[in-house]
Amino acid sequence: MSIVPDASPAFIPHHEIVIVGAGFSGIGTAIALIRAGFDDLLLVDDAAGPGGTWHWNTYPGVAVDIPSFSYQFSFAQRSGWSRSYAPGRELRDYAEQIVDEYGLEPKMRFDTRVHEASFDEATSLWTIATSTGEITARWLIHAGGPLSQPKLPDIEGIDSFTDDTMHTSRWDHEVSTAGKRVGIIGTGATAVQVIPEIAADTAHLTVFQRTPIWCLPKPDFPLGRVGRAGLAAIPGMRQAARLASQAFVEATFPVLAHFHRWIPGTDALEVAARSYIRSQVSDPATRGKLTPAYALGCKRPSFHNSYLSTFNRPNVALETTSIEAITPTGIRTTDGTEHPLDVLILATGFKVTDKDALPTYRLTTADGTDLADHWESERFRSYQGVATAGFPNFFTVFGPYGYNGASFFTLVENSAAHIVRVLDEARRRDAITAEVTTTAQDAYMESILARGPLQVFSNPTCASANSYYFTKNGDVPFRASTTLEAAWHSRRFPLSDYAFSN
Ligand code: NA7
């Protein structure tokens, strides 16, 4: 359905709505829009299929680290997950099934990279330059996701290694690590999953760690045929599992992180985490190196039941001396040691708040203001992570200060509800532009930032965590809010927070 039924032909865009990204952000937003009657939409993605992060990340051991009962859409809950924390392949299948179920395929254009988007004031349309041609749209939604741009380490000689090398998010399944001398740089959530999976088969595995990660036990268990049948057949069982899972996720991230000062006994968690490390790692020196010096929560903790104990293996070494260079034959550390390697794995994460990551293309308003420059000079600001004052007809599913750290699916559903609410109102008014007011954005930012002192991120030890939660300015652009509160505001904000024009 078009929002402007009598628009002049010159002003009729190719599509009413273009969504950049066909991962779960784009898929969930598209479904919410279609349900609200906005059918004329197109999703573009540079991948060859849907699923976003779950399309790209196929490394050994890839799995969710939020329980699957929560890591799914509320309107498309499954009983068929093989484990309480589903493997990545099942998430990729889930994305493909949802695309089928909701008939999204004809609305998707793959292998299409967006290069630039510019808003034209005369027509109130976006022109989106892509690798497969130009598209115009009334409304542009960036659903790119925060973990889509692989970050290569800035280490001398990165291109010089002559044997096999790969970033974890572009795993080359032709390369075998079995019987080889393997090096892996990074000890974030991805490395925590890869290392135990490949260690046993390698001739030798050297883990190059810069900053240790808090690794906690994962309540990961197979659901089995009986469990899955129970979830599907017993009335209320799936809902009960979801409720318990949501409560667990809420307590372990949004509440603990954003209301840290109010929660008694958080020190006890760190004590328990240390004791877990002691129970898992036999060598005291290795154990010491694997124990973080920053507060639990400064950076995303990992959950795995065999990561820490993998360092007990005789063929696994933890190297904490800094890397000086990558050489044609391996890695040289600053103590002069050469580490010869056959395979080099870069588990070095993603560009999350880097200037060229959000969004990944140049996006300009009618007066030429570039969004990335705007955020660079003004620091990140937004309204509920969805809209930015000065950028009409543009929405982000994951924008700054929008995500509270709970299941990503909750964020997607909240952001989609917010966007639908604005577009519904635009349709009611026959409006062709909608833009959040500066007053509304300022009030939102003030309310979120006021909670900063309560957050774990204000702990001084976070300075040594190298956490991607922090921007280069030291800001942590999370939505300091419980999930219920975020859901409420996404659906109940005053419509006067937006300015509409015909
Ligand atoms: P992360 O969590 O960003 O981890 C990247 C890791 O790579 C981390 O240990 C970094 O060390 C390390 N790294 C990055 N650059 C270098 C250089 N130059 N030298 C040495 N080590 C380096 O990415 P992941 O892919 O593991 O996880 C991303 C998210 O995916 C995760 O949070 C989950 O939500 C799912 P550092 O800690 O910066 O010292």
Automatic annotation (TrEMBL):
Organism domain of life: Bacteria
Cofactor needs: FAD
SUPFAM superfamilies: FAD/NAD(P)-binding domain (SSF51905)
Keywords attached to this entry: FAD, Flavoprotein, Monooxygenase, NADP, Oxidoreductase
Pfam families documented for this protein: Pyr_redox_3
GO molecular function annotations of the record: oxidoreductase activity, acting on paired donors, with incorporation or reduction of molecular oxygen, NAD(P)H as one donor, and incorporation of one atom of oxygen
Homology family: Belongs to the FAD-binding monooxygenase family.
UniProt name for this protein: Monooxygenase
